[in-house]
């Protein structure tokens, strides 16, 4: 059911619960929830967001999941969180300091829950939150709280220069790396 304009307006400034458990293979981290996601209480819920198709195209899920099936990701060793918890109409409503603070909170979550990989979906937000202005899409040097880091393109429909096929390929690259990490531990 699509939220009404009133429900969208009421969602501004709210939060969505993380999909999180100890020892995940990959913790996906969005920038922050949009109003649509906030209104329905589900991550990457807006029609046209390409997260769920990219997750499937990358081989993380056996079929295309819907946002309302997000808790099923835990059974696959996957989770979802955000850099900034606050819902907004657009990610550019977030101040740099809010993203910096979100990076600190995220690092604390990583230390507590110990996922093997963190996958941040949004290169610009990653660069800002972790003060890494030259970061590129892909595996990052070093770790955060012992967790390997991979940056993926933002799957928002607004990021149209990343085609669905290219998004799926980037997600696949992460999946392959995360599987190699398990079969060839260091």
TrEMBL record:
SMART domains, sorted: UDG, UreE_C
Uracil-DNA glycosylase-like domain segment(s): 17-180
Keyword field contains DNA repair: yes
Principal EC category: hydrolase
InterPro entries for this protein: MUG/TDG (IPR015637), Uracil-DNA_glycosylase-like (IPR005122), Uracil-DNA_glycosylase-like_sf (IPR036895)
Keywords associated with the record: DNA damage, DNA repair, Glycosidase, Hydrolase
Entries under Pfam families matching the protein: UDG
Protein EC: 3.2.2.-
Gene Ontology MF terms in the entry: hydrolase activity, acting on glycosyl bonds
Protein name per its UniProtKB record: TDG/mug DNA glycosylase family protein
Organism: Amycolatopsis magusensis
């Amino acid at each position: 059911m699509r939220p009404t304009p009133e429900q969208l307006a009421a969602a501004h400034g709210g939060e969505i619960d993380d999909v999180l458990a100890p020892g995940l293979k990959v913790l996906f981290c969005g920038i922050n929830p949009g109003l649509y996601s906030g209104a329905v209480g589900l991550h990457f819920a807006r029609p046209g967001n390409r997260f769920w198709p990219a997750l499937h195209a990358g081989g993380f899920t056996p079929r295309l999941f819907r946002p309302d099936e997000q808790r099923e990701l835990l059974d696959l060793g996957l989770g979802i969180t955000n850099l900034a918890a606050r819902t907004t109409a657009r990610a550019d409503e977030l101040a740099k300091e809010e993203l910096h603070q979100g990076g600190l909170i995220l690092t604390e979550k990583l230390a507590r829950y110990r996922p093997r990989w963190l996958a941040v979906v949004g290169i610009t937000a990653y660069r800002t939150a972790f003060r890494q202005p030259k970061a590129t899409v892909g595996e990052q040097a070093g770790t955060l709280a012992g967790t390997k880091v991979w940056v993926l393109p933002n799957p928002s429909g607004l990021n149209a220069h990343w085609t669905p096929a290219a998004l799926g390929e980037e997600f696949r690259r992460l999946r392959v790396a995360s599987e190699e990490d398990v079969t060839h531990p260091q």
